[in-house]
UniProtKB/TrEMBL annotation:
This protein's UniProt keywords: Hydrolase, Iron, Metal-binding
Name of the protein: Phosphodiesterase
PANTHER family: CYCLIC NUCLEOTIDE PHOSPHODIESTERASE CBUA0032-RELATED (PTHR42988:SF2), PHOSPHOHYDROLASE (PTHR42988)
GO molecular function: 3',5'-cyclic-nucleotide phosphodiesterase activity; metal ion binding
Highest taxon above the source species: Bacteria
Location of the Calcineurin-like phosphoesterase domain: 1-198
InterPro entries tied to this protein: Calcineurin-like_PHP, CNP_phosphodiesterase-III, GpdQ_beta-strand, GpdQ_catalytic, Metallo-depent_PP-like
Keyword Metal-binding part of the UniProt annotation: yes
A Pfam match: Metallophos
EC number assigned by the record: 3.1.4.17
Protein family: Belongs to the cyclic nucleotide phosphodiesterase class-III family.
Keyword Membrane: no
Length: 291
């Protein structure tokens, strides 16, 4: 059994380039065409998109995203990110977010009918870039995590709860320790995140964790802090925020989570679009751009 994870489209629905550099509409079309051209045996049972579907969370952007995702040859499930809007998710993506009334408006749900169980949890906080675990979501997850103890389980979030080493992105995660305590109640769980715009593979509190590469804007991997002695004069002048605040125009990427026996292997793949990897460019809004 395979699950394909994709993440971070940051789609602008107004035809403009994100951060004046990234053609997110083109990236969406290239990604959909790529997966639609896959042979049947290459396809997953379903796709999971781990957040930041639309830049600024606009209805216009979500309409394009919905049209694109529904062209995919397998079902799609989605997770909210910090750029997303829960009300649009619940209104426009009813097929992709089978959320029960007991947890609304949080976008949390499970997919139980496969050999691998999937748990989707909402780590977004309205109007906030960082993420965390709310008390209500934590209580819901406590009830869900041990329902199928024999099944290998993938837990999908947008925000990673662990320190990544990219200072501009390491903003903290509310109730990270509580999340670890809950996940450790299951003996075979992998935490799958988005948000970082680069692939990371690690272990956190003995829990295997991955972050998915993005569809749009590949993060520059730079571990320097904003006051690092190795900053250039130009970077100081531009008020460099620390590594994790710039991107390249690279090929989109995705992850394949593949069940082998009782173990899940994760494979990193790229979508060959002929990107030139220009950059790095700052994640910076310019005059006239929406947040």
């Amino acid at each position: 059994m395979k699950v394909i994870q994709i993440s971070d489209f940051h789609l602008r629905g107004d035809g403009k380039l994100s951060f004046q550099k990234a053609d997110t509409m083109k990236a969406l079309h290239q990604t959909i065409d790529y997966f639609c051209s896959m042979k049947d045996y290459e396809l997953p049972e379903f796709f999971v998109v781990t957040g930041d579907l639309s830049e600024g969370g606009t209805r216009e952007g979500y309409e394009f995203m919905r049209e694109g995702l529904r062209k995919l040859p397998r079902p799609v499930y989605i997770v909210p990110g910090n750029h997303d809007k829960r009300d649009f998710f619940l209104e426009m993506f009813t097929e992709e977010t089978p959320v029960k009334e007991d947890i609304k408006p949080y976008i949390c749900y499970t997919i139980d009918e496969y050999p691998v169980r999937v748990i989707i949890i909402d780590t977004s906080k309205p109007s906030c870039h960082s993420g965390g675990l709310s008390d209500r979501v934590a209580e819901w997850l406590e009830e869900r995590i041990t329902e199928y103890p024999e099944k290998p389980t993938l837990v999908f979030t947008h925000h990673p709860p662990f320190v990544t080493g990219l200072p501009a992105m390491d903003e903290g995660f509310d109730q990270a320790d509580r999340l670890a305590q809950i996940l450790n109640k299951h003996e075979n769980v992998t935490l799958c995140c988005g948000h970082m715009h680069t692939a990371i593979f690690t272990s956190w509190h003995k829990i295997p964790c991955v972050t998915c590469p993005p569809i749009a804007m590949q993060m520059e991997v730079d571990f320097r802090g904003k006051n690092d002695i190795n900053l250039t004069e130009e970077e100081k002048k531009e008020e460099f925020k620390g590594g994790g605040d710039r991107f390249f125009l690279g090929n989109p990427g995705y992850l394949i989570h593949d069940l082998q026996g009782d173990r899940i292997n994760t494979h990193y793949q790229t979508i060959p679009t002929g990107a030139d990897y220009s950059g790095p460019w700052p994640f910076k809004y310019y005059e006239g751009e929406e947040d």
